Amino acid sequence: MSTPVPRSRRRPLFPAPGAAAPRQPIDQAKVGRRAVRRRAAGMTATEAAAALEDARLQQHMDRDREDLADDERGPAEVAEWQRIAQLLATNGGTYDPEGDAVVQDELAADRRAEEAEQQRLQEQQQLAARADELAAHVRAGRLDRTVETRPGDEAARDVLAHRGDYHPMVDGWLAQAFADRSGHYADPAARRAAADSLPEAVRAHAALLAALPRIGAPAADGELEFAGRLAQADPEATDALAAWLERSLAPAKLAESGDR
Known about the structure:
mainly alpha; 2 domains; about 0% strand; disordered N terminus
């Protein structure tokens, strides 16, 4: 029987002083499994069984070490040696990670996760760029109906609020577009989604903006600025006012349609 392959050195559970902290926690169990697979490549069933016994012995020797009390790598290495030893005992031959279905499934899952993370980062960058664009319009005093809303502008508003760059003009602009059904709010699906993502005050502002022009000529930009202040002060009351206006105007509209 060949000499058991010694277990690799473990990485420290905590970074060395002055070392940069990892952007994401390291999966020590995955690190252990991959180390085992590299060492197991080309092994026979007998060699893998010997390596398994060595790993179990190492785990037994480490059982009283306080610095390894929360170690996930050691148990993961033992479990992976056991899986590979059983695989070779069943199938024979030598171990090849490229022919191991478990390994290939894990690699495929890692690729999908990496692609999803790249997409998430790209979306974050696009969102930050849109937030910068809206902030520039606000500073220039040009965030009005000439600037069309786009999908994701609700999240861009949240970015502005989170980084302390929020301005009430953004809420007024979103409310006007929602009331007018302009920009991406022309899509009914976008309106339904906005009902969950827009703040209550913005939705109430939009409802009042949609109702007020029906009592007279539509107002120009800026003439209904008070509606935004009402919505911010009391969204529930503003929404109730908009609903009351709709109900009050309904009989008149029905009468007008009957006269024609």
